[in-house]
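Structure first, sequence second, as always.
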């Protein structure tokens, strides 16, 4: 991850799209509960964006911890979207795009946290590609099966 550059993080871009999608929702209900649920989902999507941006400037375990917090904020956002569906008496599929964005961002964060936990890939000797202790191929002679099966 480029230090301090959240735009290069896929999960950040996805979270920003999520926040925009939740903010643009047109709710056909004048219940205060529906407006509150939408506001809470929007707030939590924004918190996730902020945490991911903050993680861009960190390294190692600190970065992984902040990204886990962002994943938690996304889970809470998803819960509020489900609440929104319930209080507006809508099918959850109506909010399918938003739920898909939450799931996508969460998967992206999980993949990144796993890569942090594994640590940097170290170059070293590769294991032999075939049994036999890495012996060189058999010298000379025709191929064992010239021309294919007969």
């Amino acid at each position: 991850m480029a230090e301090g550059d959240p735009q290069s993080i896929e999960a950040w871009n996805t979270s920003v799209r999520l926040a925009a999608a939740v903010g643009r929702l047109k709710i056909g209900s004048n219940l205060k509960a529906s407006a509150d649920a939408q506001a809470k989902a929007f707030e939590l999507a924004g918190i996730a964006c902020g945490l991911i941006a903050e993680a861009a400037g960190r390294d190692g375990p600190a970065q992984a911890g902040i990204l886990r917090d962002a994943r938690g904020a996304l889970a809470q956002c998803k819960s509020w979207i489900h609440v929104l569906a319930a209080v507006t008496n809508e099918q959850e599929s109506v909010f399918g795009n938003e739920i898909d964005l939450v799931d996508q961002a969460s998967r992206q964060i999980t993949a990144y946290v796993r890569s942090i936990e594994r640590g940097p890939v170290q170059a070293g000797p590769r294991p032999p590609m075939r049994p036999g202790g890495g012996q060189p191929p058999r010298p000379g002679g025709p191929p064992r099966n010239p021309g294919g099966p007969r």
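Margin note: The helical segments are 10-23, 32-55, 60-87, 96-118.
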